Amino acid sequence: MRAWVIWSTGLLAYIVAVLDRTTLGVSGLEAADRFAAGPSVLSTFVVLQVVVYACAQVPAGILLDRYGSRVLIVAGAALMATGQITLALTSSLPLAIGARAVVGLGDAVTFISVLRLVPHWFPPKQVPLLTQLTGICGQLGQVLSALPFLALLTGAGWATAYASVTALGALAMVLAFALIKDTPHGRKVATEAMTVRATLSSVKTVWLRPGTRLGFFTHMGTQFSVTVFALMWGVPYLTVAQGLSTATAGALLTVSVVAAISAGIVIGIVTGRLPHRRSRVVLLIIASNAIIWTVVLALPSRAPLWLLVVLVVVISVGGPGSMVGFDFARTFNPSSTLGTAQGMVNMGGFLAALMVMQAMGAILDASGGYSFDSFHVAWTVQYAVWTIAVVGILITRRKARRLMKAEQERSLLETFEPR
What we know:
Pfam families: MFS_1. Residues 6-401 form the Major facilitator superfamily (MFS) profile domain. By secondary structure, the chain is mainly alpha-helical. The chain has 19 helices and no strands.
């Protein structure tokens, strides 16, 4: 029972992190009025969130290995609450951008810290499913931003809405401090100080493990398409290029959440029961993403609604599919460096998403703006990322299997060696 309480407390902190991450997305028009900012300036908030989140992953992982989940979850909640209360009170654009960066930093340390709790508190067979459930349930934060937060924003105003989110973050911080414990047997993290050289050497060692890179390329190839679609270019594509109403586009994003939840449960069960088939599941997800996009982009005119539904459902599987990358990190790294490894894995999809968002924006600008043809050209940049990811998965999978086989043979020899 205690394990479930600790995991649930960490999960609450992650739900609040997703809420904080998505509040600006649903308050874009109000933010434009409050800060006198145009669309290009407002897009800076989205890009900044992804940049800070991705760049902070390795430092967050190093801190996680040193200080443990409890400290980082509490610190992350404090940072996000500070950023949100600043947004609630300020009308200065530079200060608001800085506050958003602080929110991104707190968000960056939260997810991997919650994930780290799972293998310490649950049996190995339950870890893949609980990893999936962590990612899935965290998306409830997006629901909170779209419903109660938006209702507060509309009814009570900007300051009240953001102050309410701050209060929820403070609650998560207090609960995490009071209830979370890193492991059942005490705080198993490094206590000795490490020099900069030793830290860099440790980071290099973790990256050179084939399992870490396998997780990185897994996260890269599966997650970026749905992230780009949901965070930036999905709604403009559906409304402008495909001619759907804003309400229908919003409904498709709701379908995306439902599809991700359903797929996550299935993927968690399958990878838990068949751990040696995880990479095949990942490759199948990447292939299905590439195939459905090829079908849609090959059409000379707008796609029928049923095909767009299929597109959204298929790419949404990539979200829970990316969680397999964290399972690879757990399998091929010792507990002492698991945080660093998970941070590296988490960079994969977000770096890819950032590059694709920027590349698509450049292509759309060069093509004269939003149109059916320009979007179809812009979406083709995805194929470069899929190619890199698949090649990376195939190479690192072979190396990881070879390393695992060598370790098994060495362990067998040590078992039967006369003493």
